[in-house]
């Protein structure tokens, strides 16, 4: 009878842990998909207001994830990178007709709008966690999701060809610099990820910067660490 009781308690604990892990994973993945749409919607709505009306015909103003996502670029690769290094790939893209935009300032604002959306989502999530009483598992999952938003902001704002930060400064560069940027655009982000993951010092500096921004927007590092450990407990074995 005692053995059965102990076994039953063990199974209950395992079931609770499995449910917690599954809930956090689904929360983070679902939240990341939504934030991906908001990131790209930010680009699109800013471009629309700046003169590129073609984004409406392309369906970018609908918040439909099918308009932005690709099964490999938006799901498989981001999961792998989050599992092994905690760095989420942007995962989607909108095609902007830059010739239709009214000014160089508008071009910069279009590029800045995507990362800004991630930062705002991170701030809102961090604020909700601090103001609303909720279960520990939910708070940990939301905190980790908020941290991923901050990572996405810090990553995308870097002035590297292929990332939004470069798009902010690109309109103001010389023709020669822009030509170099075009050539570097396909491989520069991949080189960045290799350096971030393969060079511990650079990776540590990047995450220190991300945690600094996260602290500024009111994030909870302890909750984030807990949410990260839950999330990677299942993805790390894939």
From TrEMBL:
One Gene Ontology term from the biological process aspect of the record: proteolysis
Membrane topology: Multi-pass membrane protein
Compartments, as annotated in UniProt: Cell membrane
InterPro entries: Metallopeptidase_M50B, Rip2-like
Ranges that cross the membrane: 72-96, 117-136, 142-166, 187-207
UniProt keywords, alphabetically: Cell membrane, Hydrolase, Membrane, Metal-binding, Metalloprotease, Protease, Transmembrane, Transmembrane helix, Zinc
Essential cofactor(s): Zn(2+)
GO terms of molecular function: peptidase activity
PANTHER family (UniProt xref): ZINC METALLOPROTEASE MJ0611-RELATED (PTHR35864), ZINC METALLOPROTEASE YWHC-RELATED (PTHR35864:SF1)
Family: Belongs to the peptidase M50B family.
Protein known as: Site-2 protease family protein
Organism: Saccharopolyspora griseoalba
Lineage: Bacteria, Bacillati, Actinomycetota, Actinomycetes, Pseudonocardiales
């Amino acid at each position: 009878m005692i053995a059965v009781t102990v076994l039953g308690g063990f199974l209950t604990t395992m079931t609770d842990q499995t449910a917690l892990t599954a809930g956090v994973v689904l929360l983070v993945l679902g939240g990341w998909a939504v934030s991906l749409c908001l990131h790209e919607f930010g680009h699109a709505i800013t471009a629309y207001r700046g003169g590129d009306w073609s984004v409406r015909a392309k369906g970018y103003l609908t918040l439909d994830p099918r308009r932005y996502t690709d099964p490999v670029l938006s799901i498989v690769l981001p999961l792998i990178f989050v599992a092994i290094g905690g760095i989420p790939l942007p995962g989607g893209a909108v095609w902007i007709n830059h010739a239709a935009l009214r000014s160089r300032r508008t071009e910069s604002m279009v590029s800045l709008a995507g990362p800004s959306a991630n930062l705002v989502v991170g701030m809102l999530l961090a604020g909700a966690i601090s103001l609303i009483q909720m279960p520990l598992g939910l708070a940990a999952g939301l905190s980790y999701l908020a941290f991923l938003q901050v990572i996405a902001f810090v990553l995308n704002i870097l002035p590297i060809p292929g990332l939004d930060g470069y798009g902010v400064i690109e309109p103001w560069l010389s023709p020669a610099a822009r030509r170099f940027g075009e050539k570097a655009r396909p491989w520069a982000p991949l080189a960045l990820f290799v350096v971030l993951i393969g060079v511990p010092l650079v990776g540590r500096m990047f995450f220190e910067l991300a945690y600094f921004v996260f602290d500024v927007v009111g994030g909870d590092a302890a909750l984030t660490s807990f949410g990260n450990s839950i999330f990677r407990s299942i993805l790390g074995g894939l």
